[in-house]
User: What shape does this take?
Amino acid sequence: PSVLVPSLSPLCLMWPFPQRLRVLGVFAAARDVTGLERAEQNLRSAHSELEETVRRRTAALEMEVEERKKVEEKLREREERYRELVSNANSAIIRMDQNGTITFFNEYAQKLFGYSLPEIFGKNIRILLPPVETSGRNLEEMVDTVLRNPDNFEENIHENIKKNGERIWVSWRN
Assistant: This one.
């Protein structure tokens, strides 16, 4: 009888079995995989293109990150120099928000007015002004006007009041 014996290559028909084996013929099954092979080639090509795009974009992002780090470091250095300059200036430098709340008060201002930073920070600018100057000018109205239109007050000379109550005349520039 004929027997199909599996081998490492295509299936072979062997005769007689189990005595001496003799190949009688070779059977093979085949199917068209052209479409599958093309799809795999297209997939490999798309994968390679995607990998290259990712490599290029990653390199560009790494350059952007490095550039941003450099810019941020320069900004930190400039801010530090600005803080040192403003903090150590021989002029009172006060910053306030649109409501008149003090948000910055340099060392010279602290010495001039007699307030420490914790005492003055967050207080209204009116703490440094008498309601009315000795000349009779209403400083409450002036502060309201300055807060509404700060650009109209490039320079302003008016009386201020120190923590100890002493009155001093100060020339301010915005």
In short: Residues 50 and 69 are 28 Å apart (CA to CA). The chain has four helices and seven strands. The first strand starts at residue 3 and ends at 5. The mean pLDDT is 86.
